[in-house]
Amino acid sequence: MAISTDKSGPGQKPVIAYDQRIAKSVVRVIKGLPVSPNALTALGMVVGIASGFLYAEGSWSAMLGGSFLFMIAVWMDHVDGEFARATGKTSTFGHYFDHVGAMSSYCAMFIGAGYGLRDTWLGDWAVPCGIAAGVSVALIFSIRLWQETVYGKETTEQTVRGGFEIEDTLYAVGPITWIGAMPPFIAAAGIGTPLYLLYAIWEAAGHVRRNR
Questions:
Q1: Which residues contact 161 (CB under 8 A, 6 or more apart)?
Q2: Which of 12, 106, 201, 212 has its CA 20 to 30 A from that of 195?
Q3: How far is CA 196 from the centre of its chain?
Q4: Contact (CB, 8 A) for 211 and 155
């Protein structure tokens, strides 16, 4: 996970999001452990996929457990990168694997939640909404990764505002689950995420046009 900046002016230090600061603090403690950054990425991916299976089970207790696992997976997306930088074990493969790990966690949550909400008022629409959100997330990640590879990492950097970046909204999945608001959330994600996919395509196409 790259450090995001507020881009407020040249020569200024990058602004680091709160969850990344926590990851840095944890890494200072664990950086001596005999593990690789890729192992931490794999662990985060397993945690994220497990959250999707819990959401798919559909019961309140399972979804509650899934919400905690998902938030851990989102946070661990910072830990592996910080660990790699702190131990000097950064690699091109690790960078791409980090994207795959995060993408897998997010897709698992959306698709799993869609299956788990079939008995709610969403009914038969729950599964298509979850799949639409999950597939859109996978395509957005793929487009961003292509854009970063071809046109540079700076074209995909996220802006930090008030200590948060846009992807930190995913932590809200926890509280949304706890208050029983997952059905409207998945319904909104089934519409909003494909729309954001269109924006990502439009933005990437803009880079193609400008660089011809």
A1: 6
A2: 212
A3: 14
A4: no
46-78 pLDDT per residue, tens: 999 999 999 999 999 999 999 999 999 999 988
Q: So where are the chain's domains?
A: 18-210
Helices (H), ranges, the chain: 18-30, 37-57, 60-87, 92-116, 126-151, 173-178, 182-210
Say which amino acid occupies 144. R
Phi-psi region of 35 (alpha: psi -120 to 50; beta: other; left: phi over 0): beta
pTM for this one?
0.86
- Angle between helix axes 126-151 and 182-210 (nearest 10 degrees) is 30
Domain 18-210 has CATH 1.20.120.1760: yes
Burial of 8 (0-12, 13-18, 19+ CB in 10 A): exposed
Tokens (6 digits) for 204:
């990437």
| Cβ atoms of residues 197 and 136 within 8 Å | yes
Instruction: Quick: pLDDT tens for 125-164.
Output: 999 999 999 999 999 989 988 888 888 777 777 666 656 6
DSSP character at residue 125 = G
The chain-wide mean pLDDT, for the chain, equals 88
User: How high is the pLDDT of residue 113?
Assistant: 97
CA 199 to chain centre: 17
Mean pLDDT for 181-189 is 97
Rg over CA atoms, the chain:
18
